[in-house]
């Protein structure tokens, strides 16, 4: 992909993310000339998009290695031994992000039946905060020291990261943002 296209998507996504991460009752200040504004760090949409691209690269790398015969094809999920997930970072991703995600989605758009007509309160800032925390947890997990693994453990970890990728993509889609595949 062309770098200008990637930068265009990233710029739009960053601005949208920053706007959508502001609670509706809070004021949003846009100071374009302010040199102290930074999208660096772990609390920004850029960080979320960066981790989305890291996941895409990880799965693309696995796919290429599989096509070269270095790795076997991914087995059915039902045949995976999830008891191999014993690292604290793996459990953190599972119990703090993947499993609670459907509940978060049900809490982000609430139908207000007290007023006449249809009124829906949408809490996009909850999704943004969740995606930032997921990105921080994933980044901590991904940045640890590489460890030797057996294929069984590799497949279970890849399945866990598939779920992380699905949550990230769904959360970004809820915000109207496309996931990045390269960065």
Automatic annotation (TrEMBL):
Q: Which GO terms describe its molecular function?
A: arginine-tRNA ligase activity; ATP binding
Biological processes, Gene Ontology terms: arginyl-tRNA aminoacylation
**Every DALR anticodon binding domain range:** 48-183
Q: Which PANTHER family match?
A: DALR ANTICODON-BINDING DOMAIN-CONTAINING PROTEIN 3, DALRD3 PROTEIN
Q: What is this protein called?
A: DALRD3 isoform 14
